[in-house]
Amino acid sequence: MEFLLALVTGLLYAAGLYMMLRRSLVKLIIGLILIGNGANMLIFLLGRITKGLPPIIPEESKVFLEPYADPVPQALILTAIVISFGLQSFAIVLIKRAYKVVKTDDLDQMNSTDEYS
Amino acid sequence: MLIAILSGFLFAFILVFAGNDLKNKYAIVSAIVPFGLFVYFLQFTNRIAAGEVIKKTYQWIPSLNVNLGFTLDGISLIFALMITGIGFLVFVYTAAYLKGHHYLDRFYGYLAIFMAAMLGLVLSDNILSLFIFWELTSISSFFLIGFNNKEKSSRQSAVLALAITGIGGLLLLAGMLILGNVTGTYSIAEMLSSQSIISDSPHYIIIVLLLFGAAFTKSAQFPFHFWLPGAMKAPTPVSTYLHSATMVKAGIYLLMRFTPILGSTELWNTTLIIVGAVTMLYAAIHTIFRTDLKGILAYSTISALGILVFLIGLGTKDALLAACAFILVHAFYKACLFLVTGIIDHETGTRDTTVLSGLRKVMLPVAIAGILAAVSNAGIPPSFGFLGKDLIYESTLHMGDMAIVLTALAVLTNILLLYAGFVAGVKPFTGKLPSQFEKVHLPSYLMWAPPLILAVGGIVIGLFPGIVEGALIKPAVTALGANSGDIHLKLWHGFNTVLALSATTIGVGLLVYFVLKPSEKLVQLAQKFEIISPQHIVESLAYGFAYFSSYWSKIVQNGYLRNYIATIIIFLIIVVGYTLFNHTTFEIDYNSFAKLTVYEILTLVLMIVGILFTVFTKSRLAAVASMGVVGLAISLIFVYYSAPDLAMTQFSIDTLTVILFVLVLYKLPKYLNISNTANRIKDGVISIAFGSLIMVLALEVLSQPQNTETSSFYAENAYILAKGKNVVNVILVDFRGIDTFMEISVLTIAAIGVFSLLKLRLAKKFRDK
Amino acid sequence: MKTIILKTASKYLLPLLLLFSVFILLRGHYLPGGGFVGGLIASIAFVVYAFANGLEQTKDLLRIHPGYLMPVGLLIAFVAGISPMFLSALPFMTGEWFAEPLAVIGMVGSALFFDIGVFIVVVGVSLTIIFTITESA
């Protein structure tokens, strides 16, 4: 299963990068989200996956009695998911504004301020 | 003493608030600061003359054993008195010179900071604080030189000065660090006892060279001299202060300070003699080819600095004595000449020597000051300059085999300097008064009194050298490590070689002055050689560098986002891929992996289809929807593998993201079909390579043993320390609570960003800009 | 999307979902859940209501602009963080607990208040973003 998960993670990264390399702004954001998902999967996978043993201490006990899934990557990913929502919404709104001002979502026509003059 | 040094900074700080009141009527009040400091340092003269060395140490970074130490000995005292004394006169002069200037308060602020930095520099015992003050002088002088910041040439000169002295500062830091490493101390006083350790050290040469680099850039030695003439773009008070007594003398101070520690070696002496000799002659010759008064003074200053370096290089007792005396002599007459030039410029509006003449008829006190300063500069008895020049010849004559050559160089330089001094100090006042200057009038006494004081002082000290001998010169020579017991300064030595040389200098110098008139032709002649001057070479280098960087930026910063991304990713693939390929064995133990179930396979298939559909669909809405599917599949995977919290969060966020996209999407344009097939294939290859890299990387990490120390700490203590059973939540709100706090702050910022991007509009008055 | 079915459903869904989100928030310390998820569920509740009944009506229901929730939440979280410093001179963000557990919720302590702060911030942030975008769309 780990092998397949690694494959899917790689696929998420590849798809995200491909979308980011497009010229359309909307695709850029979709690529961003895909790569974000890929990163979450990667952290999750590298924290070792464990089936059916959530990191929750059983009732009537103070410590774990049996093995448990690693809680640290989970905590990391949880914050990452929420933060990426903030990032995505900001990026989306930025696109919207940019589109209003420049009247194009072709990235190549937005580079005039970036050029060395 | 700390307060004395900091008072300049303090004053500058006060000016920030009180500047407006000060700059109108009470500008003269600010001169109290340097005057008070002058008096403060003056009271030490008796103690210093008695051979005492005053030390104050303040704790700075005790853990690193770095202290803020200040030492006041003979050399420091000379410099401190020059800095504050001439500082006082310059402050007074400025009050009239820049009267009513809009930024007068700023000017005083810079000046005060500069003064404080100079004081700190000459009083520091710790070489690190010495470096800090050194840099502060560079920075504050940058502001002073570029004070007329509306003129391009002014800004250029300021940048040039900062660049050159800044490079020197870095060299100084490097040298000081190596020196501190070799001796194990950062205190100059403690280094004095470890002279042999330093000169035997294999790093000796590099230390000395770095130190030379610092001193030569600061003190405008050939080939780094060119920033100094450019710095003449500054208002005259600045030129006076920087070039007669302070900034450029800092390098001289550094050399003097380290003479007892690093000096008396072949490398030290020879280098200094050669550089000093070249500088003094080169700059002295340059004075002939200038018609701008300040230009002449600039080159004669460089030449005088060359003489000082030259004397330090000779290194004998006589030479060091001559150096100490000459510093004072030079400070007196050069400051005076600069101030006189400033007055002429201020009143007549020109500094061209070919035009100026006969001004004595309209500004007699200024004329007296100028002529007296020129006399001292020329070394005509009974001025202080005569004494100084005598001492120089005295020391060159005792150099054994090289005596004749060295003396000849010194005489030649002095002849040319005499010429320069006369052009600056005498010529504008003698001869016929041209009609256009008849209405010129004498400025306020605030302006002509300071140069007059300096000029008269130069003569008085010449007549009674005892004033400075015991109090300043002797302790300074002692501090330089020479025996000062039998020093006796006097005007009249009897008829000997030195007197003959002096007479020759004066005679020939006057002859040159009367024969050679400054003219445009000479200036143009000098222009022809501009192409091989160090300034030209450095400027071309700088230009070439700028050109190269802009060319390079055009390649790297090409303005195409996807090129940036592609560059970064390709680089990453190459670097990581290379390492992976060389250093890992691809052994995957499939048995250790979890077994597959039907649900999982279905979920993964769903996900793969979703991803591919997102990439290849032509419809935006379909892409967003399939992206949602991918998110849901991920949350299913979280469910399978023991992460219920993640699954819930992913699910809710996925919902919100899709909603968000749908809300915005209708306002966005349709997908553009603008990439050609070649590009697509190229990007596809990069993407697949990148994805494979990540996959291999993940598998490789999975085959390594896992470190669970952190996780088990959290898991074991979740209930015991934090009374919670859901470990993920306990980590979020308790163990790593501050991180979570930062995270919600970031979320808030993102929300405010969204709100302000969409809701806020510029107020009407800004809208058009 | 103003259908009768959704409208009617949303009337009942809103309180139910809100109740559920608070439930998720409170049990977070012992079972899956917590401030982040709870906050997201609460915002989804309001978004669903807004879809069914329009933005204006949702805003009236909320009475205040959701943006104001962000500083409030941050303040609660911060106070929960610094309270140990004042109460028992412990470092920032040390857990402090009441001696006896409360019915249903379990142990009540500074961590719970911190989580409540997170909940409020998340609601404020997501609603601000969604409402702002809806209005100017």
Q: Please give the count of helices of chain B.
A: 33
Low-confidence parts of chain A lasting 5 or more residues at pLDDT below 50? Answer: 113-117
Helical proportion of chain B, percent range:
over 70%
Oligomer: heterotrimer
Total discrete domains of chain A = 1
Radius of gyration of chain A: 20 Å
The low-pLDDT segments of chain B are: none
Give the rounded overall mean pLDDT of chain A.
81
- Structural class by SSE content of chain A: mainly alpha
* Strand coverage percent of chain B: under 5%
- Please provide the count of β strands of chain A: 0
- State the separation between the terminal residues of chain A, measured CA to CA: 53 Å
Shape of chain A: elongated
Q: Which strand-content bin applies to the residues of chain A?
A: under 5%
Percent of residues in helices of chain A: 55-70%
How is the main sheet of chain B built? 2 strands, antiparallel
Structural class of chain B: mainly alpha
Tell me the number of helical segments of chain A per DSSP (H or I, 4 or more residues long): 3
| Overall morphology of chain B | elongated
Q: Can you tell me about this structure?
A:
The complex is a heterotrimer of chains A (about 120), B (about 775) and C (about 140). Chain A has 3 helices and no strands. Chain A is mainly α and about 120 residues long. Chain A has one domain (about 1-55, about 70-105): Helix Hairpins. In chain A, helix 1 packs antiparallel against helix 2. Chain B is elongated and about 115 Å long. Chain B has helices spanning about 1-25, 30-40, 45-50, 75-95, 105-125, 125-145, 150-185, 190, 195-200, 205-220, 225-230, 235-245, 245-260, 265-290, 295-315, 315-350, 365-380, 385-395, 405-425, 445-465, 465-480, 495-515, 520-530, 535-555, 560-585, 600-615, 620-640, 645-665, 675-700, 710-720, 725-735, 735-760, 765, and strands spanning about 55-60, 65-70. Chain B contains 33 helices and 2 strands. In chain B, helix 4 packs parallel to helix 16 (about 315-350), helix 25 (about 560-585) packs parallel to helix 29 and helix 27 (about 620-640) packs antiparallel against helix 28 (about 645-665). Chain B is about 75% helix and about 0% strand. Chain B has a two-stranded antiparallel ribbon with strand order 1-2. Chain C has 5 helices and no strands. The two termini of chain C are about 15 Å apart. Chain C has one domain (about 5-135). Chain C is mainly α and about 140 residues long. The relative contact order of chain C is 0.17. Chains in contact: A-B, A-C, B-C. At the A-B interface, helix 1, helix 2 and helix 3 of A face helix 24, helix 25, helix 26, helix 27 and helix 28 of B.
